[in-house]
Amino acid sequence: MSRPGRDDSPDRLYTLTGGRSRSGSDAFDLVTLVVTESDPTPGMQSEHVAILRMCRFPTAVVEIAAELALPVTVVRILLADLHDTGRISARHPRSAHRLPDPDILEQVLVGLRNL
Amino acid sequence: MTASPSPIRPSALALLITAVVTGAFCTVAVVSAAPGSRAVLGWSLGIAAVLLSAGAYAMTHTVLRNRVLRARLTALTAQIDAQEANAARRSADAVRLDAAHAAERKALIAAHAAELRRAESARAAALAATANAAGRMQALATGMLADLREMEHRHADEDVLGDLLHLDHRTAQAGRLADSIAVLTGARSGRRWARPIVMESILRGAMGRIGGYQRVRLHSTSDAAVAGHAAEGVMHALAELLDNAANFSPPTAEVHVYVEEVPAGVIITVEDSGLVMSEVQQRRAEQAVSGRSSDLAGLSGTRLGLAVVGRLARKHGLMVSFRPSARGGTGALMLLPHELITHVTPTNTVDPVTPAALDLPQDLAQDLAQDLAQNPKAAPEPEAAPKPVAAPEPEAVPKPKAVPEPEAAHATAAEPASETSGEFPQFGESGLPKRKRGRALAAAHPEGPDAPAAPARASTAASDAAARFSSFRQAVRANSPTPEGNSE
After folding, report:
1. pLDDT, tens digit, 9 for 90 and up, residues B107-164
2. In Å, what is the CA distance from B72 to each residue of B66, B82, B221, B298?
3. How far apart are CA B384 and CA A94, in angstroms?
4. Which one, out of A5, B75, B121, B403, has a CA that is 20 to 30 A from the CA of A109?
C-alpha cells in the first residue's frame, strides 16, 4: 500500500461489498482466526478467492486485511459473506485478558536479553 | 386615322356620281342624236358609262385602300419603336439592378463569413474552456477519490466508513460526468493506468461509476486484462452502457454483465430486462456509437452516453452493437479487439505482500536472532501465554509471518523499512513469507524503536518465544485506540 490512491486499482471499495459498510455479524474481530472450508470456485469475486487461498492455514482477520490491502471493516464484510455460505469457519483465539501482566512479560524480556 | 372606315362607301359614292354624270350625258346624247342611230348610240354609251363607273369605283377603292394600309403601317412602326425603346429601358434597368444585387450579395457574403469566423472562434474558445474545466474537474475527482480511499483505510468505524463509501460513490459519478465532458470536448480522457487492468477490475471500476451499481451482476471468469492505455476508456464506455442499461430498465430489474473471449478479442455483454429498443431507436443508437459523426450538433443535452461511447469506441477501436436481449430488454455488446487485451499470468490474485520489515537497529536484531538460533532451549518454554494460532501440522506450518500492517505504518517513514533493517522477505515451503527468528522479540523490546510485531505461528522453541512476545504486542495493541490494519 505505497502511496495510496496514486495508481492503485480502479475498484472502489463499495463495489467490493455491494454498497454495504457494515458486516451485520460480529463474528469477526481483529484477531479472529479464519480457516478455509472449501476450495474457490470459478466466477467468485477475486477477494473471496484470495481469502480462501490465504486461509488454508488459520489466519487472523487483521492479517487478511493487511494482505489484501483493504480496510478491516470491508474484510469483515467479505468474511461474513463467506461465513454465511459456509466456505470458511471462524475461531476466536483464547481471550486476551488471560495474558500475564505486561510488567511480568517485560521482566521476562529483560531477563532474556540478559541471557 | 381617317382611313379607318372601310373604303367601300366613298367608292360607292364615286360610282354613283360617275353613273349619274355619265347617265345624264348619255341621255342628252341619245336624245340629241338622229333617231336612226339612237339605239346603237344608246347601247354604246350605256356600256361606256358602266365601264367608266366601274373604273371610277375601282380606282377610288384602290386609292383609299392604299391610304388605309399606309396609315396602319405607320402606326405599327411607331408601335415597334415604342416597344424597342421600352425594352431598351428595361434592359438598362436590369443591368442596374444586377449590379445592385451583386453588390448586396457580396456584402452579405462578407457579413456571413465574418459571422462564421466569429462563431468558429467562439466555438473553439468555448470548447477549449469546457475541456479545460473538465480536465480540472477530472483532476479534482481523481484527487478526491484518492483522498477518500485513504480515509477509508484510516477509519475503521462502520458509520464513518459508510459515509465515506457514500461520498466515494458520488465522487466517482461526478468524475464520470467530468470524463464524459472531457471526451466530448476532445480533452484527454481521465487517468492513465500504468499497467494492464484485469477484467474484474474493469467491470467493477465501470460499475462503481454509475448510480445503480447495486443492480449490476457480474459474470466473469475471464483472466484477460485490458492494456493500461485503453483501460480507462474501456471502463468509461462500459460505465455508460451500464448506466443506460440501469436507467432504461425497471428500478428493481438486474443488469447482467457477461465476459466472453472470442477469437476476435473479448466481448462484454450488458443485458438489461427493460425496454426493447425499436428498430429506429436501435439504428439511431448504432449510429451514435459508431463514432462516425464527431460534431457536437447531434447531442440532445440529456443523453450524452452513447455519443461518449462512440467517441471512445473510435479512439480505442472498440465495436459496440445492440441487439434484443433474451432477458426481454436490450443487450449491448462491446468487442475489445486483440490489441487491447493482454493475459496476465494467473498468479495469485493477491501479490505476496512484503512482510513487515521492522525498523530495528540491525545489529540488535541479528544478535537476538543469533542467540535464539544457537540456543533455542534458552528461550522460555511456551506456557500459559496465549498463542493466537494453533499450528495444525508443526512441520508444514510456515515460519512466523509478520503482519504487513507495520509496513503501512512505516510507509511514511523517511526510508523504506526493508532498507533500514537490511531484510527482505523469505518464503517458506507454504509460499508465505516468513520472518527471521527473534525479530518479534527484538521488536517487542521497550527500548527499541516502537515497532509492532505480529501474531506468530510456529512450533520451534525459538519462534515460540517470538510468538509469545508478538502476542503480547498484539494484546497491547488490540486495545489501543488505533485498530490494527490501519495506517497510522
Report:
1. 999 999 999 999 999 999 998 998 999 989 988 998 898 899 888 888 878 888 889 9
2. 10, 15, 107, 72
3. 11
4. B403
Q: Which residues, other chains included, contact A114 with Cβ-Cβ below 8 Å and sequence gap of 6+?
A: none
d(CA A51, nearest CA chain B) in Å: 9
- Cell 467562439: give the residue: B122
Whole-angstrom CA distances from B227 to A46, A115, B351 are: 19, 57, 19
Pick from B219, B378, B405: which is nearest to A66 by CB? B405
Give the range of the structural domain holding residue A53, as residue numbers without chain letter.
Answer: 10-114
Inside any domain, residue B37: yes
Strand partners, B225: B198, B342
Nearest CA in chain B to A97: B475
| Claim to verify: residue B204 and residue B339 sit in the same structural domain | yes
Q: Which of B201, B478, B483 sits opposite A11 (nearest CB)?
A: B201
> How many CB atoms lie under 10 A from the CB of residue B1?
11
CA distance B467 to B323: 61
Nearest CA in chain A to B172: A12
Contacts for B62 with CB less than 8 Å, ≥ 6 apart: none
Residues of A within 8 A of B221 (CB-CB) are 42-43
SS3 percent helix, strand, coil of chain A, rounded to 5, is 45, 10, 45
* Closest Cβ opposite residue B158 in set A16, A21, A109: A21
**pLDDT classification of B89: cutoffs 50, 70, 90:** very high
The answer to whether the CB atoms of B205 and A14 lie below 8 A apart is: no
d(CA B183, CA B138): 11
Greater pLDDT, B461 or B456:
B461
Mean pLDDT to the nearest integer, B95-107: 95
The domain spanning residue A37 has which CATH number?
Answer: 1.10.10
- Whether B371 and A106 lie within 8 Å, measured CB to CB: no
Cell of B128: 477549449
- Are B100 and B204 members of one domain? no
Domain, as residue range, for B11: 7-131
pLDDT score, position B73? 96
Neighbours of B160 (CB within 10 A): 15
